[in-house]
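Dear colleagues,

As part of the handover before I leave the project, I'm documenting each prediction I ran so the next person doesn't have to rerun anything. This entry is a single chain, and its sequence is reproduced below.
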Amino acid sequence: MVFDQVRRSTAVGRYRVVMGVITIVSALAFDLAHTGVAQAAPATWFITPTPSGPHALYGVSCVSSTRCVAVGSTTKGAGIQRTLVESWNGTKWSVASSPNQGSGVNALYGVSCIGPTKCVAVGSYYANPTAEETLVESWNGHAWSITPSPNQGSGGNLLVGVSCTSSTDCVAAGEYGNASNVQQTLVESWNGNAWSIIPSPNEGTGADDLDGVSCTGPTSCVAVGAYSSNPIPTLNLVESWNGTAWSIIPSPDPAGDVNTLFGVSCTSATSCVAVGFSKPSVPVLSESVSQNLVESWNGTAWSITPSPDQGSGTNNLNGLSCTSSTNCVAVGLYDTPGGMMPKNLFESWNGVAWSITPSPDQGMGNGELYGVSCTSSTNCVAISRTQILVDRRPRPRTKSRSR
């Protein structure tokens, strides 16, 4: 992804797979109970085991409480990372066989499922140690297979996010390197027969990238990321698809050196939410901490929505999932000032305000939620980089007795 140096300095560098480094992840599950008067009780997240191994998960997609798919990479043999797919059947997580392109590094970063027999995952592979190319894999209900996908420019190509609305309509977003080795936005589209590159604009004179995409139909998609000119300041990038062309949509930037959006979720053409972080400007040789950033689209304009930070250290939101205009869950990390022990961060939207939801951490200093997928207000799965993959199963509830 673009701006890796900046993001790592704020404990954010999410997607790039670094050869020789193994990141173990987990998924976290969300259980929201309701009383007899339909008043929501406090949310409960809990951890459920996943298959052990040198695994890293980066994306998750659920179609029901008994069907989820998570994707990432696992380390094989001589430290080479290969694709990883894990699936949830309502009882347990298991590793599904997934193909690789060539013998080098392969990784999947995003996944979108529209049903138990249709999923698409995207990422990249290395044709040689310096040639990164797009990777797309599809699930047909029986097996995962590689689907040919194009590349652009003479530099590396990478797909980070994907959103499908039907078996004949998917959009993937990421970045590619041009002839000057400057990262530019990359958008690819699936029409049921083949993937093709769709022209997408760039902002500024420096690097641009897209980190997340959400579609509500074949004529309505939103992609988010960041662009830079110097390379600082880094500013938000929002692009919209109207069925004919991609265009840049103005989005506000808090004052600071770094603003970037990592994830977006739309429930209609007039209701979208994007999350990321903002890092205030500081004097030279001083250190600042990132703060959560949430922006909302009402069909006319993007605006910043207030969101709380946990503590006084680094905060950032990496992903979110909305099931309606009044129900969203966002995930990320928080840490103490100057700390190197990030913890999981959950925030929820009730249609009026964002609030922090308590969450478990597996061990110490290994939190950072990468993504989340919700199918309803009571069913969400999030992935994190602790050693246990967590999923959502409804806990038994004690029924009240009449007296």
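Residues 163 and 214 are 5 Å apart (CA to CA). Residues 1-26, 31-42, 386-403 have pLDDT under 50 and may be disordered.

All the best with the project,
I.
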